[in-house]
Amino acid sequence: MAQAATELVIATVNNGHMIEMQKLGKHFEQANPDIKLKWVTLEEGTLRQRVTTDIATKGGQFDVMTIGMYETPIWGKKGWLQEVKTDAAYDADDLLPAMRNGLSVDGKLFAVPFYGESSMLMYRKDLADKAGVKVADKPSWNDIKDLAAKIHDPKNGVYGICLRGKPGWGDNMAFLSTLVNTHGGQWFDMQWKPQLESKPWKDAINFYVDLLKSYGPPGSSANSFNEILALTNEGKCGMWVDATIAASFVSDPKQSKVADKMAFAQAPTMVTPKGANWLWAWSLAIPSGSKKVDAAQKFVTWATSKDYIQLVAKTNGWGAVPTGTRKSTYASAEFQKAARFAAAEKAAIDSANPNDSTLPKSPYVGVQFAAIPEFQAIGVTVGQQMSAALAGKTTVDAALKASQAAAEREMRKAGYYK
């Protein structure tokens, strides 16, 4: 009698690379006829809520979860995730150190990176050339503001710069945390006191609101990654600072009207280069409550393997492979040829250090977040305030004051200080 197939329920995010993984999942099923894949694809914010609730309540709804660098160290420490067991063929030493370290607790891997990213500047070289500006490999935010002013041409549907404004700890706050870092700021000082009314926060948020009000598209407070990606691909953004993963989409002529005009540089800096570009990996993890651990291990190692990268390259070309995870990808001559952004992306990832990302010493790990359970709630609240300031519904000072009060309340309630 044929054995009933094991059904793996996989929770994932609706990003391009993940959608591709679902299409290629049939190759995994062909190689493992006893395993069936069932996909639950969700928008980023919804995904986070669903998997967080499921794992905290030991709901057991999912066998594989797509989680990030924020959740992995916290949940791994709590014993909520299975350690990912890899074999010699998987070659864990090939994983980029920044990625491997960000997904490990005490040297044990609790999630494997499906794609990794930092942040970078993506810009229209044709518009910069026309304005007579040569963009440096490591620009300052003042350079960016000057260029935005020169290329901003709303009458002809081109905005000087597009940046995230949609509220969320992984939406606008991912970007804004890096802007605050490079202005010399931090989320918490060594006593875990929130620093939201400090000078670097005020400087950074005022700079951001002025920049987007002057040279951004209308309705910026509703834009996050996917919205700005669409605008950029339409040729409407002169510059965009966001996830390095976007480079593969904006330079793809099948998706972008300005693919051949895009150029890449490091994320801009202000007072310090520390923490100017974020570090993130969308990763696959197995909740400790899963009853199908062996099948899940098989799947997560398949989807993050060198073979999977080769499969995507063969199917869609080297320009479409998930990046930011393996040294071997960057060593590939075909990849370097297909991905004009490869060198800038790797430089950004290698320069990000989640253990030393702020000018003043900080007690937390993370570049664009603090890897503590309370951060999610704080980041969401602050994100809403920043979005309101950007939309002109409140002042920057009032938004930061309300943010500080909310953050202090959370930290006190959690027992960080009396």
From TrEMBL:
- Organism expressing this protein natively: Malikia granosa
Query: Which residues are in coiled coils?
Result: none
Taxonomy of origin reads:
Bacteria, Pseudomonadati, Pseudomonadota, Betaproteobacteria, Burkholderiales
Q: Which PANTHER family match?
A: ARABINOSE-BINDING PROTEIN-RELATED, DIACETYLCHITOBIOSE BINDING PROTEIN DASA
**Matching SUPFAM superfamilies, A to Z?**
Periplasmic binding protein-like II (SSF53850)
Q: Which Pfam families match?
A: SBP_bac_1 (PF01547)
> What is the protein name for this chain?
Sugar ABC transporter substrate-binding protein
Q: What family does this belong to? A: Belongs to the bacterial solute-binding protein 1 family.
**Where found in the cell?**
Periplasm
A GO cellular component annotation here is: periplasmic space
List the InterPro entries. Bact_solute-bd_prot1, SBP
Q: Which domain of life is it from?
A: Bacteria
